[in-house]
Amino acid sequence: MKLMTLTALACGLSGAAFAQNDCAAGKTLTDGTFTVATGNPAFFPWVLDDAPESGKGFEAAVAYAVAAEMGFGPDQVTWVRTSFDQSIQPGAKDFDVNLQQFSITEEREQVVDFSLPYYSSAMAVLTTKAVVDGGAAPTVASLKTLLWGADANTTAVPMLTDLIGPDKQPMLYGDNVDVTAAMQAGQIDAALFDLPTALYLSAVVVNDGVILGQFPPERSENPDQFGMLLEEGNPLKSCVDAALTALRESGKLAKIEAEWLQATTGVPVIE
């Protein structure tokens, strides 16, 4: 993969000298600074080497692209770390935006604000070599027979119902760490994750992990969409939305996605 330097990325996303535009003026936590939150740690392919300040990784690159559209140079972007659960609680935030693969849901929008989507996720089936050797195949008929696990706090359960309709009730867990631990222990056969996360988990976390197949976003009536999380009522939202719209219309957001979330993964599409 060809990696762009942060300087090249920033220059490529702004044809003029960086100057805070009128939209963002006076709307950030600290004047002249764009404060962005990510996880602790932050994982590939969203952030490379747990170093978001490098601009490498999909969400790190998107953050700097949005910053540039709003007139912030790379040295005007500050990173902080937050937990996922803490971030979706109501109340004051210590960041302007937070990128941690937050799915935009009506329930969450009651207590926080989200930007327009910056990514629509293909969902992938994570399993193990033992399950595949036992006959599991990338078809809905085969997937129905598996015992599934899911994080009860995410959108994975309704997506399981919509995409697969398992024969057995899914096993529910407190977080995705517990889900992958259950898979390793042989307590469940499979789980749904967005494709980039599934790629990471199969390569790094789950021993003999296998991605059995993927559902493209259009196969779901409501594909999982990730948005930048903001404090409820944050006036910066309109500026972030305008920046994302400009990036999408110019094709720059698609280029970032192609750079960091390659479409060709070798994972079969589930029919």
Q: Strand order across the biggest sheet?
A: 2-1-3
CATH class category label of the largest domain: Alpha Beta
Strand-pairing-aware structural class: alpha/beta
CATH superfamily of the largest domain, please?
Periplasmic binding protein-like II
Q: Low-confidence stretches at least 5 residues in length (pLDDT < 50)? A: 1-18
At a glance:
With 271 residues, the chain is α/β, with parallel strands linked by helices. The chain has 10 helices and 10 strands. It has 2 domains: 6-120 and 224-260, D-Maltodextrin-Binding Protein, domain 2 (3-Layer(aba) Sandwich), CATH 3.40.190; 123-219, D-Maltodextrin-Binding Protein, domain 2.
Provide the fold topology.
Elements: H1 6-13, E1 34-38, H2 58-69, E2 77-81, H3 84-87, E3 97-98, E4 112-120, E5 123-128, H4 129-133, H5 140-144, E6 149-151, H6 156-163, E7 171-173, H7 176-184, E8 191-194, H8 195-205, E9 209-215, E10 225-231, H9 237-250, H10 252-260
Parallel strand pairs: 1-2, 1-3, 6-7
Antiparallel strand pairs: 4-10, 5-8, 5-9
Helix pairs in contact: 1-2, 2-9, 2-10
Written account of the structure:
It contains ten helices and ten strands. The protein is of the alpha/beta class. The protein folds into two domains: 6-120 and 224-260, 3-Layer(aba) Sandwich (D-Maltodextrin-Binding Protein, domain 2), CATH 3.40.190.10; 123-219, D-Maltodextrin-Binding Protein, domain 2 (3-Layer(aba) Sandwich), CATH 3.40.190.10. It has a three-stranded parallel β-sheet with strand order 2-1-3. It has a three-stranded antiparallel β-sheet with strand order 8-5-9, with helices on both faces. Strands 4-10 form a two-stranded antiparallel ribbon. The two termini are 29 Å apart.
